Amino acid sequence: MLSPDSHRRLYHAFIDQGLEPWLARLPEQLARGLDRKRHGDLPAWEKAVAKLPTLPDERRADLDRDTVSVEVALTEPQQRQCHNLLKKLAPWRKGPYALGGIHIDTEWRSDWKWQRVAPHLSPLAGRRVLDVGGGSGYHAWRMAGAGAAFVLVIDPSPRFFYQFQAVRHFVGDADGGRTHFLPVGIEDVPERIEAFDTVFSMGVFYHRPSPLEHLQQLKDALRPGGELVLETLVVEGDATTVFMPGERYAAMPNVYFLPSSAALSHWLERCGFRDVRVVDESMTSLDEQRSTEWMTFQSLADFLDPEDRRRTIEGYPAPRRAVLIATKPA
Ligand SMILES: Nc1ncnc2c1ncn2[C@@H]1O[C@H](C[S@+](CC[C@H]([NH3+])C(=O)[O-])CC(=O)[O-])[C@@H](O)[C@H]1O
């Protein structure tokens, strides 16, 4: 269960944003997303967040820096307690964060992805934003830091929901209550809601078995004239190239379509998007995704061929990611 305060915050935000068609579904979606049967560790994550100590009101949140940071004075025992509680939510994959002097060095340098994306966005100031598959919410805090009026992360992972709530505990009201997380998938967004000025889908597309349906769902979430930001794994090739790996790609299950960025541009156009641009294409480096103290399992270095880093352990082209931006016609 969410604390009544978090419930209230979410409901009020949905009312303020005129998201009434979605509001009626929230109680069921929250209950399902946080159902204790979904993961054996869920009660432990909930408890860890609930046990975070009350913090002094005086704090300084910096959401517009590479490391999402909250400066707040903690006593040494408090800092130790927070460190242990945050560790209970590991593995921490998306970040980095610095919370009350605790540096969470996550598996991903998600700030590097943001650096590739941010310069190309229509300014986020005042916009209503949806981040589909937003993980722990790192990019959502950056979007709020860039001035978005309302940011909603949807991600079905309850672990990431509790990681977000832990960061929220530190941020407090310093974001003006503009950043939110709903533990559901893209399939739970009400049909044709057309409510968001910018929709992000980063690191999700290749997990979708029906890629054009995913593009259509993203389009339906956008208001006419809104902007889509699509980041995904691609392969080299022309507008006719698409690759589907076997059961695993770089050890990941559930990886389906890896088009070339030219093919993906073509698909976006076929789905009715306009002004499609590939703003970045780059290989994922071993410094961007790696094991850390906060994510101690295997990471990219273990999933590439040790003899030839240009290949995955399955012999496929190593991860290459593109960022595409497109507009829904007004
Ligand atoms: N049906 C679904 N609907 C929405 N999200 C889903 C669904 N299924 C899984 N996810 C979520 O999609 C996220 C994909 S990670 C990208 C994180 C961030 N965006 C990043 O760009 O760093 C992959 C990566 O590391 O590239 C996970 O958090 C899943 O729980």
UniProtKB/TrEMBL annotation:
UniProt subunit comment: Homotetramer.
SUPFAM superfamilies: S-adenosyl-L-methionine-dependent methyltransferases (SSF53335)
UniProt similarity note: Belongs to the class I-like SAM-binding methyltransferase superfamily. CmoB family.
Organism of provenance: Onishia taeanensis
GO biological process terms, semicolon-separated: methylation; tRNA wobble uridine modification
InterPro entries: CmoB, Mo5U34_MeTrfas-like, SAM-dependent_MTases_sf
Residues that bind carboxy-S-adenosyl-L-methionine: K94, W108, K113, G133, D155, P156, S157, I186, E187, M202, Y206, R321
Enzyme Commission identifier(s): 2.5.1.-
Reaction equation(s) it catalyzes: carboxy-S-adenosyl-L-methionine + 5-hydroxyuridine(34) in tRNA = 5-carboxymethoxyuridine(34) in tRNA + S-adenosyl-L-homocysteine + H(+)
Chain's role: Catalyzes carboxymethyl transfer from carboxy-S-adenosyl-L-methionine (Cx-SAM) to 5-hydroxyuridine (ho5U) to form 5-carboxymethoxyuridine (cmo5U) at position 34 in tRNAs.
Gene Ontology MF annotations: methyltransferase activity; transferase activity, transferring alkyl or aryl (other than methyl) groups
A Pfam family this chain is assigned to: Methyltransf_9
Keywords: Methyltransferase, Transferase, tRNA processing
Keyword Cell inner membrane: no
PANTHER family from the UniProt entry: METHYLTRANSFERASE (PTHR43464), TRNA U34 CARBOXYMETHYLTRANSFERASE (PTHR43464:SF95)
Enzyme class: transferase
Name the UniProt record assigns to this protein: tRNA U34 carboxymethyltransferase
Coiled coil region boundaries: none
Gene name as annotated: cmoB
